[in-house]
Amino acid sequence: MGCCDAPGLMPIEDAMEKMLSRIQPIQTTQRLPLPDALGYVLAEDILSPINVPPFDNSAMDGYAVRRSELALGQPLTVAGKSFAGQPFDGEWPAMSCVRIMTGAQIPPGCDAVVMQEQASVTNAGVTFSVRDVPHNDNIRPTGDDIHHNDVVLSRGARLTPRDIPMIATLGVSQITVYQKPKVAFFSTGDELKPLGEPLQAGQIYDSNRYGIKPLIENFGCEAIDLGAIPDCPQTLKATFEKAQSLADVVVTSGGVSVGEADYTKDILEQLGEIGFWKLAIKPGKPFAFGSLQNAWFCGLPGNPVSAVLTMYVLVQPMLAKLAGHTEWQAPQSIPATTRTTFKKAPGRTDYQRGIYSIENGQFFVETTGNQSSGAFRSMSLANCFVVLERERGRVEAGETVNIQLFNATLY
Ligand code: AMP
Ligand code: MG
C-alpha cells in the first residue's frame, strides 16, 4: 500500500475521460405513449401546442364582476353561473354578477372575481364587502403558465415523475424518446451460490447481481440478467458472446483481479479490444473497460463494495452518455467536518462509506466502520461517499473532507 500503490494505476478522472470520449449516444428513437415514457430520455423538444391555461379562468370560488359596477357599492343580481367545464353563455345585464367557481371560464366583460368570503347573498342581490379591487383580480389569464410554442422540455432530458404530468398538461399523448441502453450483466466465480440454497464449503452467495441490476434500472437502462457463470473459459466465452448479441453494454463482476484476469483477458482479446485498467481508486482498483465486437465492456471487481461502487461512479456516467441524457450531472462534492477518524494511506483516491448529518446548516460525517471492500455493511449503512484525495493520509476527527451524497439511483 502507501505511495508505492500508485505507479501504473490510472487516476479516476483520466479513466472517465478515456471512457466518455469513446462513447457515442444511441441514436435510435421510438414513439411511446406518454405514461410509458418515465425514465426514457427525450429525443425531441416538447413545444406546447396550446396556451396553458387555455382560457381566462377564475382562481377562486366567488362572483365574476365588472369593477365599474362593483365600485358603485350597490347589490348586484345574479345573472347566471359559470362552473368548471360549463361556461356562462347567457346575457349579462347591467348591475349583475355571475356566480363562478375555481377553474371556470371568465365571462366576456368581466374584469375581476370577488371571492365568496367577501360577498353575501341578500334579497336585493349580492352585496360585497369590497368596492375597489385590482384589475383582473383572481383571474388566471390565458397562457399565464405556458405560451403556445414555448419549449417546455428539451431533447436530452430524462423523464421524471414531474415531467410526465407536465407533458400531459399540454394534451400530448405520444412522444419520441431514445431507445434505452441495454445492459447485459453476469457474475463470475466458482464460489457463487444462488440465493435460497444452503452454502457448501467455500461458497458464498452471489450478491453482486442484486447490486448491479437496480443501478442499471434506476438509471433508466434495460437490465438483462445472464446469471452467475463459473470460472470456466468455454462457458465464459459463450456468455460474453451471448451478452454482446443482446446488449449495448456488457457488465461483469469478478474475474478481473490477479489470477483470474489472465484468462478473462484472453477471452476478451479474442472478442474485442481491452484497455485493461487498474485504477488509482480504493476500493475498485481492478476495474476494466474495453470494447467487444458489438458492445462496450465494463469489468467490475468481484468484491461487493467495489462492484457497486464502480458501477455507480464509473459505469453510470458512461450509461448517461450512451442514453443521450445530456442533463445528467455527476454527484457534487460538499465539504463536511469529520466526526470520526478515517484510516487512509496515500496513493489512491478513497471512496469511503460515510453517514452524513446536517446541523445548523453544516455537514458532518462519520465512518460506517469496517471499510473492507468485501464488507457490504459499509455500503448498506452509508448515505454518502467520503472522497479522500490521492495524496491524503489518515484523517482525524474535526478535519474537512469532501462528501458526495448518494443520488436517487442508490436510494
Ligand atoms: P474476484 O474479482 O473474482 O477475484 O473476486 C474478488 C472477491 O469478490 C472474492 O472474495 C469473491 O468471492 C468475491 N465475489 C466475486 N463475485 C462475487 C459476487 N457475485 N457476489 C459476492 N461476492 C463476489
Ligand atoms: Mg472470481
TrEMBL record:
<dbReference type="InterPro" id="IPR005111">
    <property type="entry name" value="MoeA_C_domain_IV"/>
</dbReference>
<keyword id="KW-0479">Metal-binding</keyword>
<comment type="pathway">
    <text>Cofactor biosynthesis; molybdopterin biosynthesis.</text>
</comment>
<protein>
    <recommendedName>
        <fullName>Molybdopterin molybdenumtransferase</fullName>
        <ecNumber>2.10.1.1</ecNumber>
    </recommendedName>
</protein>
<dbReference type="Pfam" id="PF00994">
    <property type="entry name" value="MoCF_biosynth"/>
</dbReference>
<dbReference type="GO" id="GO:0046872">
    <property type="term" value="F:metal ion binding"/>
</dbReference>
<comment type="similarity">
    <text>Belongs to the MoeA family.</text>
</comment>
<dbReference type="InterPro" id="IPR008284">
    <property type="entry name" value="MoCF_biosynth_CS"/>
</dbReference>
<comment type="function">
    <text>Catalyzes the insertion of molybdate into adenylated molybdopterin with the concomitant release of AMP.</text>
</comment>
<dbReference type="InterPro" id="IPR005110">
    <property type="entry name" value="MoeA_linker/N"/>
</dbReference>
<keyword id="KW-0808">Transferase</keyword>
<keyword id="KW-0460">Magnesium</keyword>
<keyword id="KW-0501">Molybdenum cofactor biosynthesis</keyword>
<dbReference type="GO" id="GO:0005829">
    <property type="term" value="C:cytosol"/>
</dbReference>
<dbReference type="Pfam" id="PF03453">
    <property type="entry name" value="MoeA_N"/>
</dbReference>
<dbReference type="InterPro" id="IPR038987">
    <property type="entry name" value="MoeA-like"/>
</dbReference>
<dbReference type="GO" id="GO:0061599">
    <property type="term" value="F:molybdopterin molybdotransferase activity"/>
</dbReference>
<keyword id="KW-0500">Molybdenum</keyword>
<dbReference type="GO" id="GO:0006777">
    <property type="term" value="P:Mo-molybdopterin cofactor biosynthetic process"/>
</dbReference>
<dbReference type="Pfam" id="PF03454">
    <property type="entry name" value="MoeA_C"/>
</dbReference>
<dbReference type="InterPro" id="IPR001453">
    <property type="entry name" value="MoaB/Mog_dom"/>
</dbReference>
<feature type="domain" description="MoaB/Mog">
    <location>
        <begin position="184"/>
        <end position="321"/>
    </location>
</feature>
